[in-house]
Amino acid sequence: MRVVGKDTERGVFLPEVMVASTIMILAVVALVTFYMTVQVTWIEADAQVKLQQDARLTLDMMARGQGGISGIMEGTTDTTTPVNIPNVSTIEYTSGIDSIERSFYLSGNDIFFDPDTGVVGDEVLIAGNANSLTFTLTGNVVTIVLSMQDQIRGKVFNVDLSTDVLLRN
Questions:
Q1: Strand order in 101-107's β-sheet?
Q2: Which of 12, 48, 121, 144 has its CA 20 to 30 A from that of 55?
Q3: Beta bridge mates, 24
Q4: Are 74 and 95 within 8 A, CB to CB?
Q5: Residue 25 lies in a domain
Q6: Do the domain assignments include residue 103?
Q7: Distance (Å, whole) CA 115 – CA 140
Q8: Which pLDDT does position 148 carry in this prediction?
Q9: How many domains does the chain have?
Q10: How many CB atoms lie within 10 A of CB 79?
């Protein structure tokens, strides 16, 4: 027969509890570190995607216009109303549809659309965060180069896009 005594019964000793607690704390610290890294990566990737979408939409609006009208592609190669680029960050063109002179231009970090250069005060802000905007005209093709920049949590994000727009004949 077996005698149950003090020497045969065992419980959890303090060193075992300390080892288990240390392992648990290390696991929690690792999970929190992983979560914070993933969160920062998500925020930075989201900022980069939003900036790239803004740049793409801005280029699309300049090329095609709002709702497919008023864009640079409406400009005509007609010599009586040519496309004019007074400086590299401004373009003036006369629509081949309604003969209204329109323009896009960079002012500070903002890109504006003027739907009628004959009317003062009707300019529309189409994008902010623009670093540079360049128009070049070669024959009947306008090349638009757009550089946008944004800063999120101290980190600077840049997007550079360009497109070619074929003018009407």
A1: 84-87, 90-94, 101-107, 110-114, 124-127
A2: 121
A3: none
A4: yes
A5: no
A6: yes
A7: 21
A8: 95
A9: 1
A10: 6
Strand-pair category, 155-166 with 141-152: antiparallel
Task: Kindly provide the b/e burial profile for residues 17-46, where b requires at least 16 CB atoms within 10 angstroms of the residue's own CB.
Answer: eeeeeeeeeeeeeeeeeeeeeeeeeeeeee
Domain range for 66 is 41-166
Beta pairing partners, 102:
93
Predicted pLDDT at 2:
58
- Range in 9-23, 100-114, 142-156 with the lowest mean pLDDT: 9-23
Q: Residue 27 domain-assigned? A: no
Say if residues 76 and 100 touch (Cβ distance below 8 Å). Answer: no
**Best CA proximity match to 96, nearest among 113, 72, 119, 115:** 72
Could you tell me which residue, 27 or 16, shows the higher pLDDT? 27
Between CA 167 and CA 141 the distance in angstroms is 6
Average pLDDT taken over every residue of the chain? 87
Examine residue 130 and state whether it is found in any structural domain, yes or no: yes
